[in-house]
Amino acid sequence: MSRSARSTGRRPMQAVLALSVAVALAVNPAPAVASGGLPGAQLATAPAPAPAPAALNWSDLVHREIVVGGVKVPIPAAIAGIAAAAAVLGGLSVVVLHAVAGVLPPLPSAGSSQAGSSEQDVPGVGGNTAPGVAGPGEYANRFDFSAANTDPAVGGFSGIDQVGPGSYIVLSDDKGEHGPVRAYHFSTADHETFTPAGVVEFTDVHGTPYTEYMDPEEIRVLPNGNFLWTTEGSGKLGKIVAPQLIESTPDGKEVRRIDVPKYHVPNGFSTRGIHHNNGPEGMTLLDDGRTAVTIEENSLAQDGRKTSAKHSSLNRITFYDLESGRSTKEFVVRVNAGRGATSLLADEDGELYMLERGFFKDLGENGENKAEIYKLDLSGADDVLGKKALNGTEKMASKSLVFDFASKRPHPDNTEGLAWGPRSSDGRRLMIVVTDNNLSDSQKTYFHSVLVP
């Protein structure tokens, strides 16, 4: 018998099996899934309003089953049955598939900020752009400062900014364990090697070294020559310190402080405000230095899941008017799973670039860092300033990949700061990326250079 004859003889049986599987899918809602369906799901005796469903981890479906006539059937087999029904039943299959689609949880919409998403580097979901493609940026150079440095206290570089041609200020995030709150001047003639050229020790308004808790992260040079820098604060119970922006003179003396919105301030229970050590890690200047823009390293506690290897986070981008010291608007961007937002940098046209990085302990021999640079687009995003907690309906900022450090081995280490360098002969701009060795001998302090279109 020919293959076509065998196929034709089996079609009625295939149709019956496929239809029974499809109907079982349509009439067996989520509680019919093995282990009671989604975590925490229970059968209800009567319909009742319910909150928006949590995002479904679709990769888990391949390990689940449905009940067909009292028999557990793997979902992949059921899907195969639906495909067979489509081939045999023609137009009727559309009705069956439509019924099936009605009982499966929907995917989150592309522009929504569904809190606690389990999407892991999924392109197009919530404005997310997955790493894995190098992007239009081009890697230019890596300078290993660790190899030349003989002072272990010179490290922990979390922020960098250009002071002038070939001159940079680099902020250390040392929390007083290896010296005072400080930043280092660096000089370079070729942007291939960087040499220490002095240190700035930050003090309070009286010129006294800080004794209060400080966690310096990003630094920018204001048009008046002063420094503006961020401190993440502390979210530990009994040691609550609000994040702040601090302006200091070129010699380090404090001028003033700018407060963050009250709902950014932690309560010590990880239910409101920043997570400990996850505050305004990135900051940049716009409008000729009249506006500061910060980005949280992680989500606010009330905004959804904290980032993890499997879960992305919803991070707030906050604008501040530096004349009044008040926050003026705020947006949300999704940061990829396992990463934090560590730096924000604006170009002369007001375009924003964001650095993401994360440590993955299962990569390589002793774990490796992943890092990507993205260009942000805030157009169409909702202003959430004053919204104490996100509810999942917010339209987020989108982002496009500029450079993925995975395209250049070895791994980049703990990338934390972005700054501009000169333009190349073809018009591209050099971007300097500095790493934080956490003042540890087991990590490196690099000055990376990336050419950005």
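^ that was protein a. below is b, sequence first then the tokens
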Amino acid sequence: MKWFENIPCKDRRSTSRRGGWNVCGLLLLFLLQAPIPSLAQADEEYLLEVGGGIGAVSYLGDFNGSLTGNMQPMATALLRRVLNPYMDVTATLSYGQLKGSYKQANTFYPDYQGQTYSFSNPLIDLSLRYEYNFWPYGTGRDYRGAKRLTPFVFGGLGGTYTHTTGTVLATNLLLGAGVKYKAAKRLNVALEWGIHFTTSDKLDGAEDPYYIKSTGAFKNKDCYSALQLTLTYSFLAKCRTCHNEDK
């Protein structure tokens, strides 16, 4: 320690101060690297949602070219499997009416000239779709960075049933978008719009009124769009151990 005694008092105080700063720096580095309990993950994450929706469906085809023309009531039951805060897979079963008339066609069909043709057919749609949230969805206390409000897009495949002069069964391609809001820890509200492109031209009871053959699964075929407000309840909490490992 003789070397320390030979240091002038001023230099000795400077050396002690530098030593103190080094100790503080090491302590701060240790605290920053230590795991800090996060209140942002206090809520559970849930794997499933069940619920329903109400809205309106509109036929699009030879006898109506407007997205909002002849909108009819529609009801939906749904089951959603939450894959993660960004992605879901949802199964829906919907019931509504498809309605239209020659008056709304705004075109000339030889076989319907001078007629007052109209239809109102039942619709049953069963669809499976993939949903993608633009922002992680949650309460903000179940997943880091989760938002209560997020826009989303979806796409999938479905089956269509209706009855005109006979039973009509078709496949449909579903595309849509919406916005969802986490109203409570287990309560979810969403407003969505989707369009179903079908493989049938008989949803209105009339096939090829121009007698022009079309090629392609969805070309010159009937379709329908739906605007709905849905309400779902979350259940089946994710394993807390698995939750931590995922993080």
